[in-house]
Specification:
The complex is a heterodimer of chains A (about 240) and B (about 400).
Chain A (H helix, E strand, L loop, with lengths): L6 E14 L2 E14 L3 E5 L6 H8 L7 E6 L2 E2 L5 H11 E4 L11 H11 L4 H14 L15 H14 L4 E5 L7 H18 L2 E5 L3 H6 L2 E6 L2 E7 L5
Parallel strand pairs in A: 3-8, 3-9, 6-7, 7-8
Antiparallel strand pairs in A: 1-2, 1-4, 4-5, 9-10
Chain B lengths: L6 H9 L3 H41 L2 E4 L18 H7 L4 E15 L4 E9 L1 H7 L6 E4 L10 E4 H7 L6 E7 L5 E12 L3 H6 E5 H8 L7 E6 L5 H11 L4 E4 H4 L1 H39 L1 H9 L4 H32 L5 E2 L4 H6 L5 E2 L5 H18 L1 H8 L3 H5 L3
Parallel strand pairs in B: 3-8, 5-7
Antiparallel strand pairs in B: 1-9, 1-10, 2-3, 2-6, 2-9, 4-7, 5-8, 6-7, 11-12
Helix pairs in contact in B: 1-12, 2-10, 2-12, 2-14, 3-8, 10-14, 10-15, 12-14, 12-15
The chains are: A alpha/beta (about 240), B alpha+beta (about 400).
Chain lengths: ~240, ~400
């Protein structure tokens, strides 16, 4: 059951250290961050600043060394691997730079896969998959496997997959990095549209100035710390 | 969440990403199982042939002797003629046929040669029901009755003695009074059979042998067959009760080599199964490990999307269920086709002498035993799938973050 909470994500004092041989490398140095419901936010910063690490920790893919992370009111730090998998399934949608679709499944099956993991009835999940593919303008391509889709089309399938389970938040890691300018623009417009019509929260780690320009909140992270957190009233 | 049926298409399609590797692994399983099943059928046929040769030549499925006869098969160890109690068992439903005999070590002498043999006095009508030799006459004819004074020799013995049908041979045997009895017999027939039988046995009428040896109505042995294998222990027990003090033995004791061949079969097939499985196991583990390593990123993705580790393990295991299952189906079909290609049996004429030495006949009749096919196929399938649990576990232990950074 999803609690009604204002902040979809709450990070308090999050640190993350990696071991490289005998050396302790700090990736995050005490992150305090709240992502509100309906945010359409970008997370920018130079390479190695900790963007992806923070995204992974919020997404339950990695664990912080210290600190607290709550997603949709649920504390992640004490959860088991299985519980984290369930949380990722029901509350978080992922969009990756490299699309990461399952190559042996069609576009529709890739979207349906999440719903199958959730145990949705066949008719219901097929209808939802079709609905999501329609939302991302992929009507007619439902039965194509990833190898027969362009990069932009694959990323749209990834967005449809991320939204299919009605997650509390979609985490996107460099979603436009592998796309040409036109396709990247189309994808940003699509995600912005979905954010506005369905109210789903987006947090995108990105270098892409076009993405940053279109988000309503822009967070900059440098050397593992939040350097700035700017809210803008209008985004395109 | 939601069972695991949805993993079936994922597992099936993943199997065909690398068709060449899948085919090679399937071929390994297929050839492995084919060899196990085909060997099982052939060994079973060999075992049955060996048993048949042992039983049908002269032994029967059991024999009754006087105590001490098997250690010292002379006229000193004799059975009295069957009494009413013994006849009741021999004529009962569990015994399908019996033949009373005089059977003694003897010497046969032709004009050219003297050789050791076993003189067997028989009742031809009874003997025909126990032994195949009366039906395998190659020259002359078999004995006509218990009073027949002719002698039937094995073809090879006749060749060695340089004698033939119509000629006479002299047989010497120890008589009941301890003296060496000697008598000339006219050769009335020659029989064909296993070389050892052709060289060892010479047959005359039962009463002729009894008169020759001076043992009255006494016997050396009574050979019998049972109506079915399961009845044998009961018949042995009934005979022991009917003839207290007699030595009642089954063919398993009388023909230990043939019995050893038939029991060795089970162990040999099992040993072969394990060797094949070990070879197959290495192939399967290697293939699946390669597949898992190649797809590390994908397994990380599945877990990132919310798939529980145990479902990842199940997915990889399902791939093996399909992969090994296909190999098993093909292997079983190939074995079935191989065995079915010999509806008239496999002629071992080209190695007949070797086969005979090993106790088998010239022709093996392969018989498909459904339980063998099912058991060995299931064993290979289950063991094959178990062999993939290690790669599958490795796939399920992949950390999503590390896997996603895997190129």
């Amino acid at each position: 059951m999803t609690n009604v909470v204002a902040n979809i994500v709450e990070c308090r004092g999050v640190t993350k250290h990696y071991r490289q041989g005998a050396i302790d490398v700090p990736a995050l140095r005490g992150i305090d961050l709240s992502i509100e419901k309906g945010d359409f936010a970008s997370l920018a910063g130079p390479s190695g600043s900790g963007k992806t690490t923070l995204l992974n920790i919020i997404g339950g893919l990695d664990r912080p060394t210290q600190g607290s992370v709550k997603v949709d009111g649920e504390e992640l730090t004490g959860l088991s691997g299985e519980a984290l998998a369930d949380l990722r399934l029901t509350k978080i949608g992922f969009v990756f730079q490299a699309y990461n679709l399952i190559p042996v499944l069609t576009a529709e099956e890739n979207v349906e896969f999440i719903l199958q993991l959730m145990g949705e009835a066949p008719a219901k999940r097929r209808a939802r998959a079709r609905e999501m593919l329609h939302e991302v303008a992929l009507d007619g391509l439902e039965n194509r496997r990833p190898a027969r889709l362009s990069g932009g089309q694959q990323q749209r399938v990834a967005v449809a997959r991320a939204l299919a389970s009605r997650p509390a938040i979609v985490l996107a890691d460099e979603p436009t990095a592998n796309l040409d300018s036109k396709t990247a623009e189309d994808l940003i417009t699509l995600m912005s549209h979905l954010n506005q019509i369905s109210g789903v929260t987006f947090l995108m780690a990105t270098h892409d100035s076009r993405v940053i320009a279109r988000t309503r909140r822009h967070i900059v992270i440098t050397d593992g710390r939040i350097a700035s957190d700017e809210r803008r009233n209008s985004a395109g | 969440m939601g069972g695991f049926r949805f993993l079936l298409p994922l597992a099936w399609r993943s199997l065909w990403r690398n068709p060449r590797r899948t085919f090679i692994t399937m071929l390994v399983v297929c050839v492995g199982l084919w060899s196990v099943l085909t060997f099982a059928v052939l060994l079973r046929a060999w075992s049955a042939s060996s048993r048949d040769v042992a039983i049908r030549t002269i032994t029967g499925e059991g024999q009754i002797h006087a105590q001490g006869y098997l250690d010292d098969p002379t006229v000193a160890h004799r059975l009295p003629p069957p009494d009413a109690g013994l006849m009741a068992v021999l004529n009962g439903g569990a015994v399908s046929a019996y033949s009373a005999r005089v059977r003694l070590s003897a010497i046969v002498q032709s004009e050219y040669k003297t050789l050791p043999v076993t003189l067997v006095g028989v009742q031809p009508a009874h003997e025909r029901q126990i032994s195949v030799l009366p039906a395998q006459i190659t020259a002359g004819h078999y004995l006509s009755g218990p009073d027949d004074v002719g002698i039937v020799l094995g073809s090879n013995l006749a060749r060695r003695l340089k004698t033939r049908v119509g000629k006479r041979v002299v047989v010497m045997v120890q008589a009941a009074d301890g003296h060496l009895a000697e008598r000339a017999f006219q050769v009335v027939g020659l029989f064909a059979g296993p070389r050892t039988a052709e060289d060892e046995f010479v047959f005359t009428g039962l009463k002729t042998a009894q008169r020759f040896t001076g043992i009255g109505s006494d016997l050396s042995e009574i050979a019998f067959d049972v109506s079915n294998d399961a009845a044998l222990p009961g018949v042995l027990a009934a005979l022991e009760r009917a003839v207290p003090g007699a030595d009642v033995q089954s063919w398993k004791t009388l023909e230990p080599l043939s019995y050893a061949v038939s029991t060795f079969f089970d162990q040999f097939v099992l040993m072969w199964l394990w060797i094949i499985f070990l070879l197959m196991g290495f192939g399967i583990v290697n293939t699946q490990l390669m597949a898992v390593l190649e797809r590390t990123r994908e397994f990380g993705l599945l877990q990132a999307l919310g798939m529980r580790p145990r479902l990842v393990l199940l997915e990889v295991a399902l791939e093996s269920v399909f992969l090994v299952g296909l190999g098993v189906a093909l292997g079983a079909a190939a074995a079935l086709a191989t065995v079915s290609a010999f509806p008239k049996g496999i002629d071992l004429g080209f190695l007949a002498r070797g086969a005979e030495l090993a106790g088998a006949g010239h022709i093996l009749y392969p018989v498909i035993v459904p339980s063998d096919f099912v058991t060995y196929s299931l064993m290979v399938w289950v063991l094959g799938v178990l062999a993939t649990l290690w790669p599958a576990r490795r796939a399920s232990k992949v950390s999503p973050v590390e896997a996603m950074s895997h190129i």
